[in-house]
Each structure stands twice: as C-alpha cells, then as structure tokens.
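User: Second chain of the day. Same drill as before.
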Amino acid sequence: MVLRTLTPTGCVQVELLETVTSALVCLLQAQPSLADQVPSLGHIPQLCKQMVTHRQQGAVIKATVLVLHQLATSEVCMLQFVPLQQILAPPCVCVYV
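Assistant: Same format as last time:
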C-alpha cells in the first residue's frame, strides 16, 4: 500500500512515498477502470484512516489527497466516499447566514 513507507522508527520516507504516489496516480489516469476495483478491495477507508492517523505528516496527507483525488474520478469510488464522512471530519455545527 502507498502509505506503508515508514521506517522502523516511524519516519516517512518522503522521496519513496512521492515516487509511489506519482506512479499510482499515473496508473489510475492511464487505466481509469482500475479505480472501479478499489472500493471492493477496501482501500478507500484505509487511505482515509491513514490521513487521520498521520495528520502531522504533510507528505502522507499530500500523498493521500492525490490518490483520493484520482479515485474521485470513478463513480464507484465516489459512492464509497459518502459513508466515510465520519472518519474524515469530526462532528461540527455549520451555521448558514
């Protein structure tokens, strides 16, 4: 998985993460039908949880957002995003004026 580029001490190998993320995004751009298979594999919730878990590490957030952005081009993936709102955003009250 893209986000498993941590060293034994828990540091992110930024260069490796960027390379793998770029390759994955390019693959999903070249083969859009591959994105339709991702929800059935359970990777979307894992990506979102990694983003929350590693919110202090900008490289992880950037990599996750790039991959999720590319996955968002798939309608099948978009349907998977809807139940994940509870993971991504803490409950808040929005006031419209």
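Residues 14-30 form the longest helix (17 residues).

User: Great, on to the next one.
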